[in-house]
């Protein structure tokens, strides 16, 4: 059965991998959000006084996080993995093709798992988090950022208004994102301890909505929802979406705003002998 025909799957993972592969061929045109998220994640890691000899970079793209870390975290070996072969080939050092929902690693493999803007497209985020926790050694650390919450609310609204006006009904033009308030509970369900969920909103302005949509395509973040509309969009609907975006979210200088909510997850695998969720006895995270 095709992935898009399965009602339990929100995302068409074949399409998501295809979009990411396409982005790898033109990477650098719209990588500013990934660069910013990588820098913020590296700063978080610099605050941790532990050393992490063996680490995994989940969703490595062309090795942006490896370049950003610059020795932070006491990482001796960084394994880089991406779902797009073209990205994996460009990453320096040990690398492979794979993704969070089918990790090709045994239990307790890594001291640290890092991920920059990758997990938001997982069909089974609780299952992916569980696999990540199992792949961590006791006292191992997960540091991951993902799009969540209010990301692309403006684009979603503009498409909805345009389709209602032109076609009498609206499809799913922008993927839904996890509610940050739910992510802490998901980490606990996956067996992590000391979960912390931080949210930062980044507002980006564009000449128009078309420029935003081009950037999303170049980032590999085109709409991969399984129930997305197939085929060509009517020219009148597309024009109305651009028009609605400007009328609803235009700035005084004529540009339009787009909001990206980036959530950072910080959580630890339980210490030795405390593998059940919520059973750790320590009162503070093992930062030292």
Structure description:
- α6 (153-167) crosses α9.
- The protein has 288 residues and is α/β, with parallel strands linked by helices.
- The protein has helices spanning 13-25, 32-46, 64-69, 85-90, 125-135, 153-167, 180-189, 209-219, 235-249; strands spanning 54-58, 77-82, 95-97, 110-116, 136-147, 193-206, 256-268.
- The chain has a domain at 9-149 and 177-202 and 260-268: Rossmann fold, CATH 3.40.50.
- Mean pLDDT is 90; it is low at 1-5 and 276-283.
Question: TL;DR of this structure?
Answer:
With 288 residues, this protein is of the alpha/beta class. The chain is 35% helix and 21% strand. A 7-stranded mixed beta sheet has the order 3-2-1-4-5-7-6, sandwiched between helices.
Give the helix/strand layout.
Elements: H1 13-25, H2 32-46, E1 54-58, H3 64-69, E2 77-82, H4 85-90, E3 95-97, E4 110-116, H5 125-135, E5 136-147, H6 153-167, H7 180-189, E6 193-206, H8 209-219, H9 235-249, E7 256-268
Parallel strand pairs: 1-2, 1-4, 2-3, 4-5
Antiparallel strand pairs: 5-7, 6-7
């Amino acid at each position: 059965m095709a992935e898009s025909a399965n009602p339990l799957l929100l995302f068409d993972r074949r399409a998501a991998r295809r979009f990411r592969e396409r982005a790898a061929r033109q990477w650098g045109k719209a990588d500013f959000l990934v660069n910013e998220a990588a820098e913020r994640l590296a700063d978080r890691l610099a605050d941790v006084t532990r050393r992490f000899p063996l680490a995994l970079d989940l969703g490595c793209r062309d090795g942006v996080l490896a370049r950003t870390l610059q020795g932070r975290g006491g990482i001796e070996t960084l394994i880089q993995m991406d779902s797009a072969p073209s990205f994996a080939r460009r990453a320096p050092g040990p690398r492979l093709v794979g993704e969070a929902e089918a990790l090709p690693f045994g239990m307790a493999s890594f001291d640290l798992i890092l991920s920059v803007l990758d997990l938001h497209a997982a069909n089974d985020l609780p299952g992916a988090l569980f696999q990540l926790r199992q792949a961590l050694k006791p006292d191992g650390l997960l540091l991951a950022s993902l799009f969540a919450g209010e990301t692309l609310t403006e684009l979603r609204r503009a498409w909805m208004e345009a389709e209602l006006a032109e076609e009498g009904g609206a499809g799913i033009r922008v993927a839904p994102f996890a509610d940050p308030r739910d992510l802490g509970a998901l980490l606990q369900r996956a067996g992590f301890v000391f979960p912390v969920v931080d949210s930062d909103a980044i507002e980006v302005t564009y000449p128009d909505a078309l420029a935003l949509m081009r950037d999303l395509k170049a980032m590999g973040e085109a709409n991969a929802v399984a129930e997305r509309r197939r085929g060509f969009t009517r020219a009148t609907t597309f024009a109305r979406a651009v028009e609605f975006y400007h009328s609803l979210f235009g700035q005084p200088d004529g540009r339009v705003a787009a909001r990206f909510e980036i959530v950072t997850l910080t959580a630890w695998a339980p210490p030795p002998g405390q593998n059940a969720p919520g059973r750790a006895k320590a009162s503070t995270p093992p930062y030292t």
